[in-house]
Amino acid sequence: MIKCHLSRMMGERRLKISDVARDTGLNRGTLTRLYHETAERVELDVLDTLCAYFDCQVSDIFEFNPNLVPKGENTSP
Q1: Is the pLDDT of residue 72 over 70?
Q2: What is the pTM of this model?
Q3: Domains of the chain
Q4: Residue 32 pLDDT greater than 90, yes or no
């Protein structure tokens, strides 16, 4: 599963979704879905904008962990 660290990164900087949307021009809905880890896809220009804004690499925002279970999925048979 892919883990998105946007909420942690924003929390460390005490930023709200509205702050990032205003500063970057990104859609609030897009940021909200990333923040709550409900996004099913991410456009490359969004990643580019977030990496520039947070001065980070894509790997700082997203992490692949094959052992994580996606939210809402039940692992019991």
Answers
A1: no
A2: 0.84
A3: 2-64 (1.10.260.40)
A4: yes
